[in-house]
Design brief:
The protein has one domain. It is 41% helix and 27% strand. It has 6 helices and 8 strands; from the N terminus they run αβββββαααβαββα. Strands 1, 2, 3, 4, 5, 6, 7 and 8 form an 8-stranded antiparallel β-sheet that branches. The N terminus and C terminus are likely disordered. It is globular and about 45 Å long. The protein is an alpha+beta fold.
């Protein structure tokens, strides 16, 4: 096998590693520090919405959960659910899916990447229960109606609670301002429970070493050709 073919095969194998790792089931559970609630302390409230013409009162805010295992340890993460008509049932095995695969629409990816990647702070989306509920409402609107036709007062999903609506529209205006860059994200997907946003997992250290080694091979090959 030629050096080029070996290098190409190595790169293909390396790029496949994250996909293989992401396909392994990941247990998601409630964060024991929450007490009796799955929501982060002080960051949830009841809001009134209309979904497909049916008015409902529903709890909304930011979940405080963990993923991992008893053997390898647990990682805390803050998240929003993506399926308004699904109950959150934990603990449950999930599969990590790239956000770009879960959301085929580029505008949906972009806006979720901006909001989830930039507004999860106590000065923007996590100021209080109202802004946290507004963040969740934005996620539901993107899933149900799409970011390109965003309108919290019309469509399949409508937000009725006036103060949460005002907060959500303010956050949306910030997302549309062009001041923020989208951040890559993943989704924990599972049957019989809600799909959840999660930060993207960085490439494993072993993968970085492998790619660095292959880059070194390429540099050495070019150097030998120049010497010859």
């Amino acid at each position: 096998m030629s050096r080029f073919a070996t290098l190409a095969a190595g790169i293909a194998m390396a790029l496949a590693l994250p996909a293989i790792a992401n396909a392994a089931p990941i247990t998601v559970r409630d964060n024991p520090d929450n007490g009796s609630s799955v929501f982060a302390t002080g960051l949830s409230r009841t809001i009134t919405i209309d979904i497909n013409g049916i008015t409902r009162n529903i709890g909304a805010g930011v979940f405080s959960l963990q993923y991992g295992s008893n053997e390898d340890g647990w990682t805390d993460f803050l998240t929003f659910c993506l399926q308004i008509n699904e109950f959150l049932s934990l603990p449950r095995e999930h599969t990590r899916v790239a956000g770009t695969d879960y959301f085929p629409d580029a505008e949906d990816q972009n806006k979720i990447g901006i909001i989830y990647g930039n507004f999860m702070t106590d000065t923007t989306g996590l100021q209080n229960s109202t802004t946290a509920a507004a963040m969740q409402a934005i996620m539901w609107e993107i899933v149900e109606d799409g970011a390109s036709s965003f309108d919290l007062s019309d469509g399949v999903f409508e937000l009725i609670s006036a103060d949460v609506l005002a907060a959500a529209n303010n956050l949306w205006a910030m997302a549309m301002s062009g001041q923020y860059l989208p951040v890559s994200f993943d989704v924990f997907a599972a049957r019989r429970t809600q799909d959840l946003l999660t930060p993207e997992v960085p490439l494993p250290g072993a993968l970085y070493l492998l790619l660095s080694g292959m880059a070194g091979l390429g540099f050495a090959s070019r150097k030998q050709k120049r010497i010859a």
